[in-house]
Amino acid sequence: DIQMTQSPSSLSASVGDRVTITCRASQSITNYLNWYQQKPGKAPKLLIYATSRLQSGVPSRFSGSGSGTDFTLTISSLQPEDLATYYCQQSFSTPFTFGQGTKLEIK
Amino acid sequence: QVQLQESGPGLVKPSETLSLTCTVSNGPLTDYYWTWIRQSPGKGLEWIGYMSYTGSSKYNPSLKSRLTISIDTSKKQFSLKLNSVTAADTAVYYCARQVSESLPVFDYWGQGTLVTVSS
Question: Which residues does chain A have within 8 Å of residue B60's beta carbon, measured at their own beta carbons?
């Protein structure tokens, strides 16, 4: 199985800050990397797919980059509603696997 | 927009079979792949498996020996059966839509249902 490792596990930032979350795969997954946002008590929501493609309806402050084994999710200007846990997921091969999550708190 | 809703028992005894159904509304079952994912505190998010509207399927090898996913296009439902459950199968179970086999991203999710394995 491909292991997905996210860092940091948690972070605290202020409204307006630029926030970066990283995800590393245990082997190359080319660009088969997706990001999800999960708010407390809710199902995950697709934010970005294929490394950098923004899902319809997702604010443009979210962006993704990377290739191979190293990927990044960036929030350009943090908003209060971005309080959530963020997960990366590889769709390169089955079994599809997720990172352990990054819990984002607002200062 | 597309909606998915899980249903099934919230409590299952050890060694018995966990059965869940996902009903799809406001969208077609055809042209998509239908997936089960679970989330537990200990193992995080875990992909269980998928089935297409044509009946082709892929399962997580870690669960394959105990798992059956089926689809009923006439009822717009797909189902999960996991047998010989243990406490390790306690989790929130989500059904989700996978865009395609070549684009395995999950764009719509059910709200999730908690299944506890306990006597």
Answer: 94-95
Q: How many CB atoms lie within 10 A of CB A99?
A: 27
- Render pLDDT for A27-67 as a digit per residue (tens, 0 to 9): 999 999 999 999 999 999 999 999 999 999 999 999 999 99
In 3D, which of A21, A26, A22, A24 has the Cα closest to residue A95?
Answer: A26
State residue B100's pLDDT score: 87
Q: Which residues of A80-90 are buried (b: 16+ CB within 10 A; e: fewer)?
A: eebebbbbbbb
Which among A49, A99, A100 has the least Cβ separation from residue B105? A49
Put simply, the answer to whether B47 touches A45 (Cβ < 8 Å) is no
Rounded Cα distance, B20 and B39, in Å: 15
